[in-house]
Design a protein that fits this description.
The chain has 177 residues and is mainly β. It contains 1 helix and 8 strands; from the N terminus they run αββββββββ. Among the domains are: 68 residues, Listeria-Bacteroides repeat domain (Immunoglobulin-like), CATH 2.60.40; 52 residues, no CATH class. Helices cover 11% and strands 34% of the residues. The longest helix has 20 residues. The model has no long low-confidence stretch (mean pLDDT 83).
Length: 177
Amino acid sequence: MKRFFKRFFAVLTALAFILTATPLAGFATETTTENDQTTVTQPETTEPVEEYTITYYSNGEKFGEVQTYKAGDKIVPPEAPEAAEGHIFNGWVINKSQDKLPETMPDNNLEASASWSLKEVNITFISDETEVKKSTAPFASAMEEIVPADPEKEGYKFAGWFDKDGKNVFDYKTVPA
């Protein structure tokens, strides 16, 4: 019985040695020896490299061309779409949580959407070349919340606040772009 186990373990050890010394791709390998160093190379696989796409959207509509990349390639997004009045382009995002478009292509297809924010508008109220109030307000916010109290000047009646084009600011219901 002892002899059986010795032979069994010897065969098992030899089998383990053969399996670990044999390349997984079979025997189609190239072995080269240079400067007392042996290099074993596997044949190149002919599997096609997977490509993935990015489709861009702006305001819910398809924007530009669909781009194709291999996983790991650097992504070069298209130029910013034209912004709607009072808005600023923030960049491309890829999901509802507004994650930024990655710099390199992952191993899956992507849909990227233009991200926008309201433009901040600087407003300065000046009376007799003196600054009365300076504000920054988002586009389309309520104008009445920004307008200061009427200034007073002895002997004069205040005619109103006007923009550079002569339009009364109270004609604006919201902050213009």
